[in-house]
Amino acid sequence: MRIFLLTLALLAGCSGGGGGGSSQPPPPTLLPGQVSSTSPWNASCGNPAGAGTLYLNAEVEPHVEVDPRDPNHLVGAWQQDRWNNGSARGIVTAASFDGGATWTIGQPAFSVCAGGPDQRGTDPWVAITRDGTVLVIALTTTGGTFEVGSTHAVHVARSTDGGRTWLPPVTVLRETTPFFSDKETMTADSQDARFVYAVWDRLSEGHGALTMFARSTDGGVTWEPARSIRGFGTDGQSIGNLIRVLPDGTLVNVYMFLRGEEDSATEARVEVIRSTDKGATWSPAIVVSDFRGLGAHAPNGTAVRDGSIIPQMAVAPNGNLYVVWQDSRFTGVRDAIAFSRSTDGGLTWSTPARVNSNPQVTAFTPQVHVRADGVIGVTFYDFRSETGTGTNTDYWLARSADGGNSWSETRVAATFTLANAPLVSGAYFLGDYMGLTSAGTAFLPFYARTTGASVTDIFLTRIDSALSAQKSAATPDPDLATGRAAALANAAAARRARLR
After folding, report:
1. How would you list the strands of the sheet with 321-327, edge to edge?
2. Fewer CB within 10 Å: C terminus or N terminus of the chain?
3. 22 lies in some domain
4. What is the pLDDT of residue 214?
5. Which structural domain, as residue segments, surrounds residue 387?
């Protein structure tokens, strides 16, 4: 059975969180691989009147890391109890010391339900340093985006016992209108345990945006002041910033660049910038590819709040970089999973090719990771099990042992009903990203799926088997003007939807 522990900080952070009685309900029955369970907070915690629709027991947007010193030590995090109009009641973490067989659940003090200062939490991301220190970063908010009197903050919590308990979070940045920060990630330097890097996009209402960067040189204990490392003028922005560290110590930050006002986006592309001095200075932008994502819709016509404008990147032991994102260039009518590689540290990139085997259905929300033996893994959702106009959804792992030239697919999760997911801005929502890591020759997808009406849970599946017969990756199609126009319009719409 799995272990579910609540820290004293959690119990103190939400008045009445234990229901006022001394007895506890029996542990819930979990499905195979299920990590999350019912909400640790009562229905009134962080739930002011008129705040929107709360999806109690909806766990979404997970991330996971494995301890570089111990492949059996895993730490994940996710949004707990998602709101329809932005963010969740808080962030929950899970630590395993037996390869995912059992889990210890905890809550860093980000939101009021866990004893923190703000009403809501979102965008959790985990990092583990070379010496085993565990860190989790999150964005917290009180009030609406750009609403007078609202505040938002980027916090990092630190654990010295492997993720069982959490020290009080450190505030990396706190601001109010007219600014808003979004989609932060954090990366522990694989070459030096002292260095940890955080990066995100910062919007200024009506005045463009910046890519922001903060650095810790003491393993996350303290953080240097956040600063801009990339500007975009008055009508551009980045989103989905993520740093990877090359074997020589070079930092490479990937992001989606968007230019245009609301529905009149004129440019959208995947870019990277590089730093050879631990983030002190950064190169000009390098283009990975133009972006032609359309965004996913379920077969019943309902939109999916997916990861269409959130590129993902992984670094191989030999220094190769691999980027994946949603893109319609292969058909012009629906998104597939695009893949590009760099063999020179991010200076040049290959022509995008398709990863998913079935171009007749939409594929969405990819994640990428490289095992220690160089095998690449890419996870994604698609609708190939839906034969009518419903929402049957599958989760897949594609693997490549030849640098992304060919791929083999394995089903990760049993088919589930996406219509049971929470509705965010009228779209089905499981998260803008999922988690994927590895231990030895096993890939470890860490993902969300529905388990009941308006209920989602987080699962971990271990996939450790030989590659099956490979399929040929698709060659890229020529430019499709109609797909590009739709991609630009969708990029602007997705940008607005993320802020709700």
Report:
1. 312-315, 321-327, 336-342, 353-354
2. N
3. no
4. 98
5. 8-15+35-41+52-498
